[in-house]
């Protein structure tokens, strides 16, 4: 019998949030297993924003999110802001454009 691998964390769902979470864990030295039921990870990212890959906006109002803990979203949005994510995108030299000074879209040359 093969030895089972051990992980510090398991992230279920390899969409945008799941991949981001797994990457942050890995960068902090946490061994992470990322699970996805679809044949391609991140595939749904390309359809966000009407197929234009909307990656953030500057107005993520906490009251627009559902949670059993009404303070969770406020806390999460205050600890990692849209501007933090834009800086991350820029650090990888990923091209993007903004629309109406609020929504941000990745410049996509080809789609998977």
Tell me, what's the shape?
Answer: globular
The average pLDDT value, as a whole number, equals 85
**CA radius of gyration:** 16 Å
Secondary structure tally: strands: 5
Placed side by side, the strands forming the largest sheet appear as 3-5-4
Q: What do you see in this structure?
A:
- This protein has 112 residues and is α+β, with helices and mostly antiparallel strands.
- Helices cover 32% and strands 18% of the residues.
- It is built from four helices and five strands.
- The strands form two sheets. It has a three-stranded antiparallel sheet. Strands 1-2 form a two-stranded parallel sheet.
- The longest helix has 12 residues, at 16-27.
- The chain is globular, with a radius of gyration of 16 Å.
- The chain starts with 8 loop residues before the first strand and ends in a 6-residue tail after the last strand.
- The model has no long low-confidence stretch (mean pLDDT 85).
